[in-house]
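Listing S7. Sequence submitted for prediction.
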Amino acid sequence: MTRPEFGWKKRWRVLIKAALVPLTLALALTGCSTATVAPASKKLPIYCVARDDNKLAISFDAAWGTEYTGEILDILDEYNIKTTFFVVQFWVEKYPEVAREIIRRGHELGNHSSTHPEMGNLSPGTIQEEVMGAHRAIKEVTGYEPILFRPPFGHYSPAMLEVIEGMGYYVIQWDVDSLDWKERGVDDVVARVTAQAGPGSIILFHNNAKYITQALPLILDDFRRRNLEVVPISQLIYTEDYYIDHEGRQHKKSSGP
């Protein structure tokens, strides 16, 4: 498949458009509420997880380079934590040694599509092609089989969710957006994440964001002070007997209605 070229103007347009999609939710929470809420009336992805412990997850979307990835991995090693990297097919094929290093260091890979399109607009057949292209590339390069999928730009539809979940994937969004790609500076990234993150949160970073390596240690220090434990997303979510409420929170069914 041919890699699409995204300039910053188009990236802004697509991100803004995705943010305005009625089905795309933005949770203004400090952590993920554990209050019992009725299941959503329509299919939704997982934005965060209602948990009764102090676990939360960090994720990095990887599509546009590797300049800071090695240092990110070194920082994560220093803090002895494991995370989730959502990778695009063309990124894995261009940087196979980096993808293998992520796995070697004990992190997990998630599927971020083959060509980074707006997934909610695609036909079922094209959705399957986007998912399986990246799935095959990840497995062939690293030997790892992903079970987590993050739609590019957070763009999705209920029909897309139906197709991808039918392929055995859990569709993952986020409740804490670092906005690190906007390059507003270290303090902005740190303030946004530390103010919003809490138990059950899924935090969105990008592996090639300009200030990520300066902001990440400050954020992890804050988590240590607050006794928050960072785990990969697959260890944060429930993989069976769960439901998702109308704001995208995943709950265990045993504690739900």
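Caption to Listing S7: primary sequence and predicted structure tokens for the chain studied. Residues 124-142 form the longest helix (19 residues). Confidence is low (pLDDT under 50) at residues 1-29.
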